[in-house]
TrEMBL record:
Membrane-topology descriptor: Multi-pass membrane protein
Species whose genome carries this gene: Georhizobium profundi
Family indicated by similarity: Belongs to the TRAP transporter large permease family.
GO molecular function: transmembrane transporter activity
Protein name: TRAP transporter large permease protein
Residues in TRAP C4-dicarboxylate transport system permease DctM subunit domain copies: 12-424
Compartment(s) where it occurs, according to its Swiss-Prot or TrEMBL record: Cell inner membrane
Entries under InterPro entries matching the protein: DctM, TRAP_DctM
Function of the protein: Part of the tripartite ATP-independent periplasmic (TRAP) transport system.
């Protein structure tokens, strides 16, 4: 089929450019411009400039640097590490308690940070050394942290969800709310896998027998409380319609800065670093968005999404089988492309078919986000794997990869549950 040939040619061209070290965003932009010029028309190239301007000037994109800044301030000020200390104290007596606490800390930090690598780096810097110091298997320590970091893009706020919302013109507020229950479900599935592993092999996580005084528990919880309150303020304001995602992002960023300053955890140099990181990440986001829109424009003018939709909907099979095939394709693609690139490439191609099959675009956005989570912990290009190698320099990469791969299982189980029970993702948005 012609659409498959066009799409395969696009993916092959992108991989070729990546092989010669061309950034993915630039590669997609170049392919989009070249394909439009050669296969559509020279005059159509001028439309790309209009697309770049209109999309980058969209007010909704202001939410991106605001949520990124909120996460950066909390991460650099050390407020995020207080989540691990609190979670670890409350869960330490469970099988694999410190690893379970790591998942809990990642879930808490995810609620104020829209990035998976930042979540893994912030929590991993303290959790991995702590687990190893207490006799935990290095594979379990690295795996739990890498997998927990993936919650950073499922539990709102989420940078990938913002990108998905912009591309599909779906409500970002509803996407954020849709991620709450799946995020909690994924955290529970990850914790369950840790407990099962430890029960089968107790030697990988020695039990902690020392009782922690209630005063120490309260003190640790008090230190983590500001982060929890900021997260609740952001999500509750969006859910009940008190604020748009952009307004909630502004309040969250301001609250993070004020809280860190009040607790004397934020110096001017750290604030400058947070702002610098925010600008860099936002610039990368914008370049990726524009490059993706260029390639999407060319593929759309060549009829790829339309033909792909007609082909998939004409197949004489149950719709869920097609969704499974799409998920398998995403799983394979995630091994070779970075997460946001997968989203920009795949969504314009498959969304039309998914909606035609009767599935909700918000539900599909959550499925895509979980697939991006899996991509973050699968070699050879899993972001979280390399982030942990950087923040824990003495880590052996084989331990990081070996410990992380088993956590793909609960993520796949989560996708299966969402396919069987779509209301896990759609219940809360339906109440708005």
């Amino acid at each position: 089929m012609e659409a498959i040939v066009w799409f395969a040619s696009f993916v092959a061209s992108l991989i070729l450019l990546m092989a010669v070290r061309v950034p993915v965003a630039v590669g997609m932009g170049l392919i989009g411009i070249a394909a439009t010029w050669i296969f559509v028309s020279g005059g159509a190239v001028s439309q790309l400039a209009n697309i770049a301007y209109s999309q980058s000037a969209s007010f909704i994109l202001v939410v991106v640097p605001l949520f990124i800044l909120m996460g950066e301030v909390i991460a650099l000020s050390g407020l995020g590490t207080s989540l691990f200390r609190a979670a670890a104290i409350w869960t330490r007596r469970l099988p694999g308690g410190l690893a379970v606490g790591t998942i809990g800390a990642c879930a808490g930090f995810a609620s104020v940070c829209g990035s998976s690598p930042v979540t893994a780096a912030t929590i991993g810097a303290i959790s991995v050394p702590e687990m190893i110091r207490n006799g935990y298997s290095r594979r379990l320590a690295f795996g739990a942290t890498a997998a927990g970091g993936t919650l950073g893009i499922l539990i709102p706020p989420s940078v990938p969800m913002i990108l998905y919302g912009v591309i599909t013109e779906t409500s970002i507020g509803k996407l954020f709310v849709a991620g709450i229950l799946p995020g909690i479900m994924m955290a529970c599935l990850l914790c369950a896998l840790i407990v099962i592993q430890v029960m089968l092999k107790p030697e990988i996580a020695p039990r902690v027998t020392r009782r922690v005084p209630i005063v120490e528990k309260m003190r640790a919880s008090g230190e983590a409380a500001p982060v929890v309150l900021i997260a609740l303020a952001v999500i509750v304001s969006i859910y009940f319609g008190f604020a748009t995602p952009t307004e909630a992002g502004a309040v969250g960023a301001a609250a993070a800065i004020v809280t860190a300053l009040a607790m004397r955890k934020l110096r001017i140099s750290l604030l400058a670093r947070a702002l610098d990181n925010t600008v860099r990440t936002t610039a990368m986001f914008m370049l990726l968005l524009i490059g993706g829109l260029f390639s999407s424009f060319a593929l759309t003018r060549l009829g790829v999404p339309q033909e792909m939709s007609n082909f998939l909907t004409s197949l004489d099979v149950a719709p869920w089988i097609i969704i499974v095939v799409i998920n398998v394709f995403l799983l394979i693609l995630g091994m070779f492309l970075d997460p946001l690139s997968i989203l920009v490439i795949v969504v314009p191609i498959f969304l039309k078919a998914v909606v035609a099959l009767g599935y909700d675009p918000i539900w599909f956005g959550i499925i895509i986000t979980i697939q991006i989570e899996i991509a973050a912990i699968t070699p050879p290009l899993g972001f979280n794997l390399f982030v942990l190698k950087r923040v824990v320099p003495d880590g052996v990469f084989s331990d990081i990869v070996g410990g992380s791969l088993i956590f793909v299982i609960p993520l796949l189980i989560g996708i299966a549950l969402l396919m069987a029970f779509p209301q896990i993702a759609l219940f809360l948005p339906g109440l708005i």
